[in-house]
Amino acid sequence: MNKLRFLLFLLMGAGMTLAKSTAANVGSTDSTYQAYTDEDINNIGGTVVGYTGSANYLKSNDDQGFHWWYSKKTASADGQYYKVCYAPDNLTAYFYHLGSLKGWVKGYIEGNTIRIPSRQYIGASPDGKDVFLSAVLYDNDNCRFDIQQDIKFTLSDGRDRLTLDTNDDDNLALFTHADDGTVYWGQKDLTLDKFDQQLVTPPSTANKKRYTLSGNYFSDHNVWVATDGDDVYIEGLCYTKPHAWIKGTRDNAGNVTCPNGQYIGLSGNFVYAIWGAEDGIKFNYDAETDDYTLEDGASIGMGYPSDNIDFRESDLKLTHFDLVPGKPMAPDSVIIGSFWPSSEKYFIFDIPEKTVDGNGLDKDFTFWRFYVDDTLFVFTPDRFPVEKPTSEIPATYSTILFTSDHTYYFGKMYAGTVFYAWPDIDTENAAIEIVYDVDGVRNVSDKVYARPEWTAIQQPRTSSREAVPLEYYSIDGRKLSEPCHGLNVVRMSDGTVRKVMR
After folding, report:
1. Do residues 134 and 147 touch, judged by C-beta distance below 8 A?
2. pTM to 2 decimals?
3. Contact 58, 18 (CB under 8 A)
4. How much is the pLDDT for 463?
Protein backbone atom coordinates (compact mmCIF):
# COMPACT_ATOMS: atom_id res chain seq x y z
CA MET A 1 0.00 0.00 0.00
CA ASN A 2 1.24 3.49 -0.81
CA LYS A 3 2.33 5.10 2.50
CA LEU A 4 1.56 8.63 1.33
CA ARG A 5 -2.00 7.73 0.40
CA PHE A 6 -2.48 6.02 3.75
CA LEU A 7 -1.11 9.00 5.67
CA LEU A 8 -3.32 11.50 3.85
CA PHE A 9 -6.44 9.47 4.49
CA LEU A 10 -5.58 8.83 8.11
CA LEU A 11 -4.78 12.42 9.02
CA MET A 12 -7.92 13.78 7.35
CA GLY A 13 -10.21 11.08 8.63
CA ALA A 14 -10.92 9.85 5.13
CA GLY A 15 -9.83 6.36 5.99
CA MET A 16 -12.89 5.96 8.18
CA THR A 17 -15.95 4.68 6.32
CA LEU A 18 -18.95 6.64 7.53
CA ALA A 19 -21.60 4.35 6.09
CA LYS A 20 -22.36 2.15 3.19
CA SER A 21 -25.12 3.13 0.82
CA THR A 22 -26.52 2.08 -2.49
CA ALA A 23 -25.10 4.23 -5.28
CA ALA A 24 -27.10 4.86 -8.43
CA ASN A 25 -26.19 6.49 -11.72
CA VAL A 26 -22.51 5.75 -11.30
CA GLY A 27 -21.59 5.91 -14.96
CA SER A 28 -18.36 7.76 -15.67
CA THR A 29 -18.80 11.40 -16.62
CA ASP A 30 -15.28 12.88 -16.42
CA SER A 31 -13.10 10.27 -14.72
CA THR A 32 -9.50 9.94 -15.89
CA TYR A 33 -8.47 7.68 -12.97
CA GLN A 34 -5.45 9.91 -12.54
CA ALA A 35 -5.76 12.69 -10.02
CA TYR A 36 -4.47 16.16 -10.81
CA THR A 37 -1.27 16.92 -8.88
CA ASP A 38 0.45 20.10 -7.71
CA GLU A 39 2.89 19.63 -10.59
CA ASP A 40 0.01 19.59 -13.06
CA ILE A 41 -1.34 22.85 -11.62
CA ASN A 42 2.10 24.48 -11.77
CA ASN A 43 2.37 23.52 -15.42
CA ILE A 44 -1.07 24.98 -16.15
CA GLY A 45 -0.13 28.29 -14.54
CA GLY A 46 -2.82 30.80 -13.74
CA THR A 47 -3.80 32.49 -10.47
CA VAL A 48 -4.20 30.51 -7.26
CA VAL A 49 -6.62 32.00 -4.71
CA GLY A 50 -7.05 30.76 -1.15
CA TYR A 51 -10.46 30.32 0.48
CA THR A 52 -11.84 29.26 3.83
CA GLY A 53 -14.91 27.07 3.88
CA SER A 54 -18.10 27.08 5.92
CA ALA A 55 -20.16 23.89 5.72
CA ASN A 56 -22.17 21.28 7.53
CA TYR A 57 -20.38 17.96 7.69
CA LEU A 58 -21.60 14.42 7.56
CA LYS A 59 -21.47 11.85 10.32
CA SER A 60 -22.97 8.39 10.51
CA ASN A 61 -25.23 6.83 13.11
CA ASP A 62 -24.14 3.20 13.40
CA ASP A 63 -24.56 2.74 9.65
CA GLN A 64 -28.27 3.48 9.96
CA GLY A 65 -28.10 6.48 7.68
CA PHE A 66 -26.43 9.85 7.39
CA HIS A 67 -27.03 12.78 9.71
CA TRP A 68 -25.78 16.33 9.39
CA TRP A 69 -23.87 18.36 11.93
CA TYR A 70 -25.75 21.65 11.93
CA SER A 71 -23.85 23.17 14.85
CA LYS A 72 -20.74 24.55 13.24
CA LYS A 73 -19.15 25.33 16.61
CA THR A 74 -19.20 21.74 17.84
CA ALA A 75 -18.60 20.16 14.46
CA SER A 76 -15.55 22.32 13.69
CA ALA A 77 -16.91 22.64 10.19
CA ASP A 78 -15.65 26.16 9.58
CA GLY A 79 -12.12 27.19 8.79
CA GLN A 80 -11.01 24.51 6.34
CA TYR A 81 -8.63 25.81 3.72
CA TYR A 82 -9.26 25.42 0.00
CA LYS A 83 -7.47 26.64 -3.09
CA VAL A 84 -8.80 27.45 -6.54
CA CYS A 85 -6.51 27.85 -9.53
CA TYR A 86 -8.05 30.00 -12.24
CA ALA A 87 -6.34 28.97 -15.49
CA PRO A 88 -4.95 31.59 -17.91
CA ASP A 89 -7.65 30.77 -20.48
CA ASN A 90 -10.27 31.98 -17.95
CA LEU A 91 -12.38 29.00 -19.00
CA THR A 92 -11.22 26.39 -16.51
CA ALA A 93 -10.62 26.32 -12.77
CA TYR A 94 -9.08 23.68 -10.51
CA PHE A 95 -10.22 23.11 -6.91
CA TYR A 96 -7.96 21.79 -4.16
CA HIS A 97 -9.36 19.77 -1.23
CA LEU A 98 -13.05 19.67 -2.14
CA GLY A 99 -12.86 16.02 -1.04
CA SER A 100 -11.10 14.68 2.02
CA LEU A 101 -8.02 13.83 -0.02
CA LYS A 102 -5.49 16.51 -0.83
CA GLY A 103 -6.19 16.46 -4.54
CA TRP A 104 -7.33 18.78 -7.35
CA VAL A 105 -10.45 18.49 -9.49
CA LYS A 106 -11.25 20.31 -12.72
CA GLY A 107 -14.13 22.69 -13.34
CA TYR A 108 -15.36 24.89 -16.16
CA ILE A 109 -16.12 28.62 -15.81
CA GLU A 110 -19.45 29.45 -17.41
CA GLY A 111 -20.40 33.04 -16.64
CA ASN A 112 -20.90 33.34 -12.89
CA THR A 113 -20.98 29.54 -12.46
CA ILE A 114 -18.19 27.01 -12.13
CA ARG A 115 -19.30 23.55 -13.22
CA ILE A 116 -17.30 20.56 -11.91
CA PRO A 117 -18.22 17.22 -13.50
CA SER A 118 -19.06 14.57 -10.92
CA ARG A 119 -17.18 11.37 -10.35
CA GLN A 120 -13.71 12.78 -10.75
CA TYR A 121 -11.02 10.50 -9.37
CA ILE A 122 -9.21 11.97 -6.36
CA GLY A 123 -7.16 9.05 -5.04
CA ALA A 124 -7.23 5.59 -3.50
CA SER A 125 -8.58 4.54 -0.11
CA PRO A 126 -6.43 2.58 2.37
CA ASP A 127 -8.14 -0.62 1.24
CA GLY A 128 -7.30 0.11 -2.40
CA LYS A 129 -10.65 1.38 -3.66
CA ASP A 130 -10.84 4.14 -6.25
CA VAL A 131 -12.36 7.23 -4.64
CA PHE A 132 -14.37 9.83 -6.54
CA LEU A 133 -15.86 13.27 -5.83
CA SER A 134 -19.48 13.79 -6.85
CA ALA A 135 -22.55 15.88 -6.28
CA VAL A 136 -25.28 13.60 -4.96
CA LEU A 137 -28.88 13.60 -3.87
CA TYR A 138 -29.06 11.58 -0.70
CA ASP A 139 -32.03 9.51 0.48
CA ASN A 140 -31.37 9.09 4.20
CA ASP A 141 -34.40 6.87 4.84
CA ASN A 142 -33.31 4.27 2.31
CA CYS A 143 -29.54 4.79 2.76
CA ARG A 144 -29.14 5.52 -0.93
CA PHE A 145 -27.60 8.30 -3.01
CA ASP A 146 -27.94 9.26 -6.65
CA ILE A 147 -24.94 10.82 -8.38
CA GLN A 148 -25.74 14.06 -10.18
CA GLN A 149 -24.04 15.11 -13.38
CA ASP A 150 -22.26 18.20 -12.07
CA ILE A 151 -21.13 20.03 -8.96
CA LYS A 152 -21.97 23.71 -9.42
CA PHE A 153 -20.69 26.77 -7.58
CA THR A 154 -22.05 30.30 -7.96
CA LEU A 155 -19.17 32.76 -8.34
CA SER A 156 -19.44 36.27 -6.91
CA ASP A 157 -18.14 39.40 -8.59
CA GLY A 158 -14.43 39.68 -7.89
CA ARG A 159 -14.31 35.93 -7.11
CA ASP A 160 -14.44 36.67 -3.37
CA ARG A 161 -17.07 34.01 -2.64
CA LEU A 162 -18.17 30.68 -4.11
CA THR A 163 -21.43 29.07 -3.00
CA LEU A 164 -22.43 25.48 -3.65
CA ASP A 165 -25.56 25.52 -5.82
CA THR A 166 -28.13 23.14 -4.29
CA ASN A 167 -30.88 23.97 -6.78
CA ASP A 168 -33.14 24.46 -3.72
CA ASP A 169 -32.80 20.78 -2.80
CA ASP A 170 -31.82 20.28 0.85
CA ASN A 171 -30.59 16.75 0.12
CA LEU A 172 -27.86 17.82 -2.30
CA ALA A 173 -24.34 17.27 -0.96
CA LEU A 174 -20.74 16.57 -1.95
CA PHE A 175 -19.59 12.97 -1.35
CA THR A 176 -16.26 11.28 -1.71
CA HIS A 177 -17.23 7.72 -2.46
CA ALA A 178 -16.32 4.40 -4.03
CA ASP A 179 -18.32 2.63 -6.72
CA ASP A 180 -19.60 0.04 -4.23
CA GLY A 181 -21.46 2.77 -2.29
CA THR A 182 -18.85 3.32 0.43
CA VAL A 183 -18.87 6.99 1.47
CA TYR A 184 -15.75 8.48 3.05
CA TRP A 185 -16.68 12.12 3.44
CA GLY A 186 -19.73 14.31 3.04
CA GLN A 187 -20.49 18.00 3.24
CA LYS A 188 -23.34 20.30 2.31
CA ASP A 189 -24.21 24.01 2.41
CA LEU A 190 -20.61 24.76 1.43
CA THR A 191 -19.53 28.39 1.05
CA LEU A 192 -15.97 29.44 0.20
CA ASP A 193 -14.78 32.92 1.20
CA LYS A 194 -11.56 34.43 -0.06
CA PHE A 195 -8.72 34.26 2.46
CA ASP A 196 -5.61 36.27 1.69
CA GLN A 197 -3.98 36.85 5.08
CA GLN A 198 -0.21 36.37 5.09
CA LEU A 199 2.13 35.25 7.84
CA VAL A 200 3.73 38.06 9.84
CA THR A 201 7.52 38.40 9.82
CA PRO A 202 9.54 40.99 11.78
CA PRO A 203 11.96 43.15 9.78
CA SER A 204 15.60 42.08 9.77
CA THR A 205 16.51 45.27 11.64
CA ALA A 206 14.26 44.43 14.63
CA ASN A 207 15.86 43.89 18.04
CA LYS A 208 15.26 40.25 19.09
CA LYS A 209 15.33 38.85 22.63
CA ARG A 210 14.76 35.33 23.93
CA TYR A 211 11.91 34.50 26.33
CA THR A 212 10.39 31.49 28.06
CA LEU A 213 6.63 31.27 27.50
CA SER A 214 4.66 29.63 30.31
CA GLY A 215 0.94 29.16 30.86
CA ASN A 216 -1.72 27.02 32.45
CA TYR A 217 -2.07 24.49 29.66
CA PHE A 218 1.31 23.77 28.10
CA SER A 219 4.73 23.43 29.65
CA ASP A 220 7.28 26.17 29.12
CA HIS A 221 8.82 26.70 25.71
CA ASN A 222 11.12 29.32 24.25
CA VAL A 223 10.10 32.12 21.91
CA TRP A 224 11.47 35.30 20.40
CA VAL A 225 10.16 38.80 21.02
CA ALA A 226 11.26 41.39 18.47
CA THR A 227 10.83 45.16 18.68
CA ASP A 228 11.03 47.74 15.92
CA GLY A 229 10.10 51.17 17.22
CA ASP A 230 6.60 50.84 18.69
CA ASP A 231 5.96 47.62 16.77
CA VAL A 232 6.32 44.41 18.76
CA TYR A 233 6.46 40.90 17.25
CA ILE A 234 5.89 37.80 19.38
CA GLU A 235 6.78 34.32 18.17
CA GLY A 236 5.41 30.92 19.18
CA LEU A 237 2.27 31.74 21.16
CA CYS A 238 0.89 28.49 19.74
CA TYR A 239 3.31 25.63 20.38
CA THR A 240 2.13 23.68 17.31
CA LYS A 241 3.21 26.73 15.29
CA PRO A 242 6.48 27.52 17.12
CA HIS A 243 7.82 29.82 14.40
CA ALA A 244 4.64 31.79 13.69
CA TRP A 245 4.68 35.47 14.66
CA ILE A 246 1.95 37.93 15.56
CA LYS A 247 2.33 41.71 15.52
CA GLY A 248 1.26 44.31 18.06
CA THR A 249 2.04 47.83 19.18
CA ARG A 250 3.29 49.10 22.53
CA ASP A 251 2.25 52.17 24.44
CA ASN A 252 4.44 54.55 26.42
CA ALA A 253 4.57 52.10 29.35
CA GLY A 254 5.68 49.26 27.10
CA ASN A 255 2.36 47.39 27.30
CA VAL A 256 1.57 45.51 24.08
CA THR A 257 -1.75 45.06 22.25
CA CYS A 258 -2.01 42.61 19.34
CA PRO A 259 -5.10 42.61 17.06
CA ASN A 260 -7.28 39.51 16.99
CA GLY A 261 -7.52 37.09 14.09
CA GLN A 262 -3.90 37.14 12.95
CA TYR A 263 -3.10 34.18 10.72
CA ILE A 264 -0.43 31.82 12.10
CA GLY A 265 -0.58 28.94 9.59
CA LEU A 266 -2.47 25.77 8.72
CA SER A 267 -3.21 22.86 11.04
CA GLY A 268 -3.78 20.05 8.62
CA ASN A 269 -6.26 21.68 6.24
CA PHE A 270 -7.65 24.11 8.81
CA VAL A 271 -6.73 27.78 9.07
CA TYR A 272 -5.19 28.74 12.40
CA ALA A 273 -5.51 32.28 13.70
CA ILE A 274 -5.01 33.65 17.20
CA TRP A 275 -7.65 35.38 19.33
CA GLY A 276 -7.82 37.13 22.69
CA ALA A 277 -10.35 39.37 24.37
CA GLU A 278 -12.76 41.49 22.33
CA ASP A 279 -10.26 44.35 22.18
CA GLY A 280 -7.27 42.17 21.34
CA ILE A 281 -4.43 40.26 22.98
CA LYS A 282 -2.89 42.46 25.68
CA PHE A 283 0.38 41.95 27.52
CA ASN A 284 1.46 44.05 30.48
CA TYR A 285 5.16 44.96 30.51
CA ASP A 286 7.47 44.91 33.54
CA ALA A 287 10.36 47.27 32.80
CA GLU A 288 12.38 46.03 35.78
CA THR A 289 12.46 42.38 34.68
CA ASP A 290 11.84 42.91 30.95
CA ASP A 291 8.95 40.41 31.19
CA TYR A 292 5.47 40.41 29.61
CA THR A 293 2.31 39.02 31.28
CA LEU A 294 -1.04 38.43 29.60
CA GLU A 295 -3.67 40.77 30.96
CA ASP A 296 -5.20 39.38 34.17
CA GLY A 297 -8.21 37.15 33.53
CA ALA A 298 -7.64 37.08 29.77
CA SER A 299 -6.91 34.08 27.57
CA ILE A 300 -5.91 33.38 24.00
CA GLY A 301 -7.28 30.75 21.64
CA MET A 302 -6.32 29.29 18.27
CA GLY A 303 -8.67 28.44 15.42
CA TYR A 304 -10.76 30.06 12.71
CA PRO A 305 -13.12 31.82 12.80
CA SER A 306 -13.35 33.22 16.33
CA ASP A 307 -16.21 30.90 17.36
CA ASN A 308 -14.30 27.79 16.28
CA ILE A 309 -11.46 27.68 18.81
CA ASP A 310 -9.51 24.48 19.49
CA PHE A 311 -8.25 25.48 22.93
CA ARG A 312 -7.69 28.49 25.14
CA GLU A 313 -4.57 29.35 27.10
CA SER A 314 -4.49 31.69 30.10
CA ASP A 315 -1.97 32.86 32.71
CA LEU A 316 0.58 33.45 29.98
CA LYS A 317 3.92 34.96 30.90
CA LEU A 318 6.96 35.80 28.78
CA THR A 319 10.08 35.63 30.97
CA HIS A 320 13.27 37.07 29.54
CA PHE A 321 16.49 35.10 29.80
CA ASP A 322 19.98 35.33 28.36
CA LEU A 323 21.09 32.58 26.00
CA VAL A 324 24.31 31.16 27.54
CA PRO A 325 25.98 27.73 27.40
CA GLY A 326 25.56 25.34 30.33
CA LYS A 327 25.04 21.73 31.32
CA PRO A 328 21.35 20.86 30.95
CA MET A 329 19.44 19.30 33.79
CA ALA A 330 18.64 15.62 33.33
CA PRO A 331 15.31 14.66 31.72
CA ASP A 332 12.46 13.96 34.08
CA SER A 333 9.65 11.37 34.11
CA VAL A 334 11.33 8.95 31.73
CA ILE A 335 8.80 6.15 31.27
CA ILE A 336 8.55 3.22 28.89
CA GLY A 337 5.38 1.27 28.19
CA SER A 338 3.12 -0.01 25.45
CA PHE A 339 -0.37 0.78 24.30
CA TRP A 340 -2.70 -2.04 25.24
CA PRO A 341 -3.74 -4.20 23.48
CA SER A 342 -1.22 -3.45 20.70
CA SER A 343 2.49 -4.12 20.96
CA GLU A 344 3.54 -0.59 20.07
CA LYS A 345 6.11 0.71 22.52
CA TYR A 346 5.66 4.17 23.97
CA PHE A 347 8.54 6.19 25.37
CA ILE A 348 7.76 9.44 27.13
CA PHE A 349 9.85 12.00 29.00
CA ASP A 350 10.10 15.68 29.89
CA ILE A 351 12.84 17.83 28.41
CA PRO A 352 14.23 20.10 31.16
CA GLU A 353 13.61 23.82 31.15
CA LYS A 354 16.87 24.93 32.77
CA THR A 355 20.56 24.24 33.01
CA VAL A 356 22.08 23.04 36.28
CA ASP A 357 23.16 26.65 36.88
CA GLY A 358 19.52 27.76 36.85
CA ASN A 359 19.65 29.52 33.48
CA GLY A 360 16.86 28.98 30.97
CA LEU A 361 17.39 26.16 28.49
CA ASP A 362 16.50 27.08 24.93
CA LYS A 363 14.70 24.26 23.10
CA ASP A 364 15.93 25.47 19.71
CA PHE A 365 19.46 24.55 20.79
CA THR A 366 18.51 21.34 22.60
CA PHE A 367 18.62 17.71 21.42
CA TRP A 368 17.91 14.32 22.97
CA ARG A 369 19.72 11.02 22.57
CA PHE A 370 18.37 7.53 23.16
CA TYR A 371 20.28 4.53 24.52
CA VAL A 372 19.36 0.85 24.26
CA ASP A 373 21.34 -1.50 26.52
CA ASP A 374 23.80 1.37 27.09
CA THR A 375 24.48 1.69 23.36
CA LEU A 376 23.71 4.97 21.59
CA PHE A 377 20.76 4.35 19.28
CA VAL A 378 20.87 5.50 15.64
CA PHE A 379 17.57 6.50 14.02
CA THR A 380 17.54 5.53 10.35
CA PRO A 381 15.18 6.64 7.53
CA ASP A 382 14.08 3.08 6.82
CA ARG A 383 12.54 2.79 10.30
CA PHE A 384 11.88 6.31 11.57
CA PRO A 385 10.76 9.68 10.15
CA VAL A 386 14.26 11.13 9.73
CA GLU A 387 15.95 12.27 6.53
CA LYS A 388 19.31 10.67 7.29
CA PRO A 389 20.80 8.44 10.02
CA THR A 390 21.16 10.38 13.25
CA SER A 391 21.58 9.77 16.97
CA GLU A 392 20.34 13.24 18.00
CA ILE A 393 16.74 14.41 17.69
CA PRO A 394 16.05 18.17 18.06
CA ALA A 395 13.80 18.98 21.00
CA THR A 396 11.58 21.00 18.66
CA TYR A 397 11.25 18.24 16.07
CA SER A 398 7.70 16.95 15.75
CA THR A 399 6.50 14.67 13.01
CA ILE A 400 4.40 11.59 12.45
CA LEU A 401 4.57 8.70 10.02
CA PHE A 402 2.00 5.95 9.60
CA THR A 403 2.62 2.69 7.79
CA SER A 404 0.25 -0.21 7.34
CA ASP A 405 1.71 -1.93 10.41
CA HIS A 406 3.10 0.63 12.83
CA THR A 407 3.08 4.23 13.94
CA TYR A 408 6.26 6.29 14.33
CA TYR A 409 6.09 9.61 16.06
CA PHE A 410 8.36 12.27 17.47
CA GLY A 411 6.99 15.31 19.19
CA LYS A 412 5.01 16.97 21.94
CA MET A 413 2.12 15.17 23.57
CA TYR A 414 -0.16 15.93 26.50
CA ALA A 415 2.15 14.21 28.99
CA GLY A 416 5.50 15.44 27.67
CA THR A 417 7.82 14.65 24.80
CA VAL A 418 7.21 11.28 23.18
CA PHE A 419 8.26 8.91 20.51
CA TYR A 420 6.80 5.54 19.58
CA ALA A 421 6.96 2.83 18.36
CA TRP A 422 9.88 0.55 17.89
CA PRO A 423 8.24 -2.87 17.59
CA ASP A 424 11.50 -4.64 16.74
CA ILE A 425 13.33 -3.44 19.87
CA ASP A 426 12.77 -5.69 22.87
CA THR A 427 14.37 -4.12 25.91
CA GLU A 428 13.53 -2.38 29.14
CA ASN A 429 17.06 -1.04 29.50
CA ALA A 430 16.52 2.30 27.76
CA ALA A 431 17.85 5.74 28.67
CA ILE A 432 17.72 9.38 27.60
CA GLU A 433 20.27 12.18 27.80
CA ILE A 434 20.00 15.83 26.78
CA VAL A 435 22.49 17.75 24.63
CA TYR A 436 22.65 21.57 24.79
CA ASP A 437 24.61 23.29 22.00
CA VAL A 438 24.99 27.08 22.31
CA ASP A 439 27.56 29.11 20.39
CA GLY A 440 29.39 25.92 19.47
CA VAL A 441 29.73 24.82 23.12
CA ARG A 442 28.15 21.38 23.67
CA ASN A 443 27.06 20.23 27.13
CA VAL A 444 25.47 16.86 27.94
CA SER A 445 23.16 16.03 30.82
CA ASP A 446 23.37 13.01 33.08
CA LYS A 447 21.82 9.91 31.57
CA VAL A 448 18.44 8.86 32.99
CA TYR A 449 17.08 5.33 32.63
CA ALA A 450 13.46 4.60 31.85
CA ARG A 451 11.07 3.20 34.42
CA PRO A 452 8.89 0.41 32.94
CA GLU A 453 6.19 1.00 35.51
CA TRP A 454 3.44 3.09 33.90
CA THR A 455 0.90 0.28 34.09
CA ALA A 456 -1.88 2.60 32.93
CA ILE A 457 -0.71 2.12 29.36
CA GLN A 458 0.68 -1.39 29.67
CA GLN A 459 -2.48 -3.30 30.51
CA PRO A 460 -6.05 -2.57 31.51
CA ARG A 461 -7.03 -2.38 35.14
CA THR A 462 -9.81 -4.67 36.27
CA SER A 463 -13.00 -2.92 37.26
CA SER A 464 -16.60 -3.88 37.82
CA ARG A 465 -17.62 -0.87 35.75
CA GLU A 466 -17.10 -0.37 32.06
CA ALA A 467 -14.42 2.23 31.36
CA VAL A 468 -15.62 5.47 29.78
CA PRO A 469 -13.61 8.24 28.09
CA LEU A 470 -12.59 11.14 30.32
CA GLU A 471 -10.37 13.30 28.10
CA TYR A 472 -9.51 13.47 24.43
CA TYR A 473 -6.24 14.69 22.91
CA SER A 474 -5.13 15.13 19.31
CA ILE A 475 -1.93 13.48 18.21
CA ASP A 476 -0.09 16.82 18.47
CA GLY A 477 -1.13 17.20 22.12
CA ARG A 478 -4.12 19.53 21.92
CA LYS A 479 -6.88 18.80 24.40
CA LEU A 480 -10.18 18.32 22.55
CA SER A 481 -13.78 18.77 23.59
CA GLU A 482 -14.67 15.73 21.47
CA PRO A 483 -12.77 13.30 19.23
CA CYS A 484 -11.44 14.71 15.98
CA HIS A 485 -11.23 12.99 12.61
CA GLY A 486 -8.18 10.73 12.48
CA LEU A 487 -6.09 9.48 15.41
CA ASN A 488 -7.09 10.45 18.98
CA VAL A 489 -5.48 9.75 22.34
CA VAL A 490 -8.17 8.98 24.93
CA ARG A 491 -7.72 8.86 28.71
CA MET A 492 -10.22 6.39 30.17
CA SER A 493 -11.93 6.29 33.57
CA ASP A 494 -10.01 3.13 34.54
CA GLY A 495 -6.67 4.86 34.04
CA THR A 496 -5.86 3.35 30.66
CA VAL A 497 -4.78 5.44 27.69
CA ARG A 498 -6.01 4.35 24.29
CA LYS A 499 -5.41 5.29 20.69
CA VAL A 500 -8.72 5.59 18.86
CA MET A 501 -9.33 6.18 15.17
CA ARG A 502 -12.40 8.13 14.09
Report:
1. yes
2. 0.67
3. yes
4. 36
